[in-house]
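Teaching note: in complex prediction, the entire set of molecules is handled at once rather than each chain in isolation. The prompt given to students was simply: 'Predict the structure of this complex.' The entities are:
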Amino acid sequence: MPQNASAAALKALTEWWEDMGVEVDQGEIARSINAQSGANTGAAPAQAPSAPSESQTAPSSGRRSRKSASKTLHDWIQEAEALAASADSIEALKAAIESYEGCPLKQLCEKTVVYDGTVGAPVMVLGEGPGGQEDRLGLPFVGKAGQLLDKMLAAIQLDRKTNAFISNVNYWRPPGNRNPEADELAVCRPFANRMIDLAQPKIIIATGGVAAKSLLNSKTGIMRLRGSERPFETPAGTKVPLVPMFHPAYLLRRPQDKSRAWRDLLLVQARLNEMGVTL
Ligand code: URA
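The expected output is the structure of the full assembly:
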């Protein structure tokens, strides 16, 4: 088997494990892939930073230092909190996220991907982060998984053009489409919280284990998280029911699980009905 084929197989297998709820050490997997291929499989960085890695976090595949290595992760989170708090509209928040330099992934991708869809929509969908197509176009969920997401939403009369708002828990594409790491998610979190405070959705759909676990601050895999509504609250006190659901990319690989995703979609529809939301 060619080396890049075995690396791809390893990546697909570990993604599948994760979707099944098995905890996977992505850093270890990425190091193993790099050891096989001798190079990262991700797109070439838009800007290749030369600074050494920040000492606070162990460098792993696809890791680059933030622009200012003198700031700690804590400093960057505080900066994200301040920037997010200063945004008084979704558009202002988008500009704040685009101006932020605290996520190391930003230096490795093309575009900052913030949101698509309808501001003020009753339904907010949060995925794990942009992939290749999203990075090229600067919009979330526009690749194959995004097309399936649109079909899933359409099945319960949701549409990003009218009543759905789409974003992610991370705004920059990780190299090789690896999962975002904990500190990468941590610096994005104040922005995601502020987005929820500003948008005031009636319900949040978290697609996939990365988004669901990160938002719910849980170690439980998506297999066990999905199937019921979970309480969610931002630090500012916005309370929104959150429905964890399989990621559409997982459903493309495991179409036999679409019936379970359908049950989760019906749950969303029923809750919206209960809340008197007409679609
Ligand atoms: N997968 C995600 O989780 N988000 C996107 O925007 C695209 C693919």
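Point out the following to students. The domain at 73-274 is CATH 3.40.470.10 (Uracil-DNA Glycosylase, subunit E). The beta strands are 115-117, 123-127, 164-168, 203-207, 230-233, 239-245.
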